[in-house]
Amino acid sequence: MKNLINRNTGLLLRIDDVAENMSWKYMDKCEKLFEQLKIKPLVGIIPENKDPDLLRFPKNDNFWNRVSAWKKNGWEISMHGFNHVYDTTTKFKDFFKYGGPSEFFGHDYNHQHKKIKLGLDKLKSEGYIVKSFFAPNHTYDLNTFLALKNNGVEVIIDGYGLFPYFEKNLTFIPQLFYKETLMLPFGFQSTQIHMNNWDDENFKRFKEFLIKIKLKILCYNEMVSTKSDSKVKKILRELSKFALINLRKLTN
Ligand SMILES: [Zn+2]
After folding, report:
1. C-alpha 206 – ligand 1 centre gap (Å)
2. Which of 60, 78, 133, 227 is within CB 3.0–4.6 Å of 164 for a Cys-Cys bond?
């Protein structure tokens, strides 16, 4: 039983909101920590960051060299939205029922396709063929998935359940908790790490968490290869979706 659990437990570190303007203090610290612990995270780059909250941070003119060094170290380069500006509201009608504002939800297919293409083209011009994506605020509709697929994206770092799964012609890696230092004792999932809101105490707790669970951390390719779609896993996914949607409504 213990072996079965060990074989079926893993965490991918998803770093959100990576852009020229971000909290480089904590990114520098994390970079050193990941190197020390031999951890390969996935970084969600905002290709054309226009988010006023992020633009308050100083710009790093060396940004693309940093990305290049991450790639060389085996980090996965992913795309996180296009400009990270919310201009629609979902009223809980978004695909995962997160609610809240969105960069993509509710826009027509052509609008979404164009934004995704512009973002991927920008990353390509810097040398990165990106195949994975996650939307700001977890908010998608069916046009988002279609536009992603038609732009060559294959993997979404969002979704419910305990195992990566295939749906809408895309692979989904579950992302369940807001807190970065939480992990279920069973199943495969991704974190979301928002270091732009951190203070030293957050970093300390994150470091302790990583040291404790480092054997469970998988890189992106390892995580994608765990994809499966058995009936039991589908049922677990529906259950976790139901539980988390209701939990979120209670705590909002
Ligand atoms: Zn974000």
Report:
1. 19
2. 227
